[in-house]
Amino acid sequence: MANTDSSSPSIFNVRKTPTFILVLLLCIASYFLAAYHQGEPLLTTATTASLHLSASCNHLTAQSSRTFPRCSANFSEYTPCEDPHRSLGYKRHRMIYRERHCPEEPLKCRVPAPHGYRNPFPWPASRDRAWFANVPHRELTVEKAVQNWIRFEGERFVFPGGGTTFPNGADAYIEDIGKLINLRDGTIRTALDTGCGVASWGAYLLSRNILTLSMAPRDTHEAQVQFALERGVPALIGILATKRLPFPSRAFDMSHCSRCLIPWAEYDGVFLNEVDRVLRPGGYWILSGPPINWKKYWKGWQRTEKDLNEEQTKIEEVAKSLCWNKLVEKDDIAIWHKPKNHLDCKLTQKRSFCSAQNDPDKAWYTDMQTCLTRLPEVSNREETSGGVLDDWPKRLKSTPPRIYRGTIEGVTDETFSKNHELWKKRVSYYKTVNKLLGTERYRNLLDMNAYLGGFAAALIEDPVWVMNVVPVQAKVDTLGSIYERGLIGIYHDWCEPMSTYPRTYDLIHADSVFSLYSNRCGLEDILLEMDRIVRPEGCVIIRDDVDMLVKVKSIVNGLEWDSIIVDHEDGHLKKEKVLFAVKKYWTEN
């Protein structure tokens, strides 16, 4: 059960600092402002009070903000931008109503956990089980019973690893794919699963060092993405409809659809065209389920042979128009291969290359297009557009091609190397303050301003995965280079809620996020969104200018978070400080 004892030992271990020296320094220069913890490393009500900044200088004290009320129980699974009730007011055409539609006014209360909420099972046990109280939905256990998706046993759900087209289990299905393309040599590291169900495909690929971002809409398959996240598998609410997916071009080594119900051949092939945009040169698209192997299954699918044959023919034509090569079709699986460059790509009248003004990495509320995203130029047929990636795990530490080719303004090989070492140092310091970081206690992590992915890279040996976010307001777009390191992430605007369920993340990291958004939207709205998506007893780490952290802490005081501000890893003379916070455990009444 979740620990609610306020007298329990803190996760924090803060170094002692002479108070008189601190006060003197703070009064001489306001930018030396920090909060310090004296005495035993316990984060209780009493010790939290001792962290308040010295009253010797009035501007140093973080004033208490108003307390934000708790939302009613019906908000426990609230997804603001994918609200199933508000979405009904939008068009059904091309599933527009399933896309992001954020409310005009942000929620001003704190989303509750359901009654009986418990800390998820630690990884890897969480791959196969989750607490019923955390996701109290049995619909899929009935609807997908024969497909072996999920079972309900006592107080928990069990995930046997089955799927609509792999009732014998995801592991066996992946082995079948592995007989057709190599899944173990490190050439395939990042994958996208569209229409993911409960994300068993991505869950079982992790044992092969393939990091999959599983994506599905919030639809009639209630809570499928929420189940994925409870399992400790990377997942996001999303849909192929009218807007580009929130990923850069050339992001994934492999994309997959297993009876995902996406009409690939419709609307001039726009959905497959979007897969092409996010697929890396030389990448693979895997399709199983209708219409593949229709001659065997057409009666069971309750469709005519003619209908299924026409659908497959249209998909083949769209893939050909993208200059893809059909690699293999064996039994229930078909695999296409994207070319590594476009030198031999001869387009038909139905499809042309996008113009040079069309930024392939622009993917925040950007309309999908049917023009083909042009790959970077090459000098010969053997060259890979955009540069060759090292195999995993060497890929993580190698300078990404987008950097060494000079396509990210102001970021060089030296910048990358220094950033990598910097985050190794910072994460090591974080672990001296939060003693649970790096243990099985945290699984799902979010980096709200990831830059080059250094935070995630420094944690690569730990049992975690990190969703790296590059804000659309960032000075430079670095998300493509994060993918080139073998990591995953999305574009996002933190003035809006994230496309995920409440209680998604065990730990949230925010580096300079509040300085970035200080003149763009309310700080309290960002913090309330963080409160929505962090789990009870989850941790938040915020790095920022000390003056900004004092403002943040004044808001945090009204969120029922326990928090402390500690020095920069290089000492108290640095103006940048770090706030550590823990969200208290509480549930709906």
From TrEMBL:
It comes from the Eukaryota. Its EC number is 2.1.1.-. InterPro entries: Put_SAM_MeTrfase, SAM-dependent_MTases_sf. Its main location: endoplasmic reticulum. One of its GO terms (molecular function) is methyltransferase activity. Gene3D superfamilies: Vaccinia Virus protein VP39. It is found in: Endoplasmic reticulum membrane; Membrane. Keywords: Glycoprotein, Membrane, Methyltransferase, Signal-anchor, Transferase, Transmembrane, Transmembrane helix. It is a single-pass type II membrane protein. GO terms for biological process: methylation. GO terms for cellular component: endoplasmic reticulum membrane; endosome; trans-Golgi network. Belongs to the methyltransferase superfamily. This is Methyltransferase. It comes from Vigna mungo (Black gram). The lineage of its organism: Eukaryota, Viridiplantae, Streptophyta, Embryophyta, Tracheophyta.
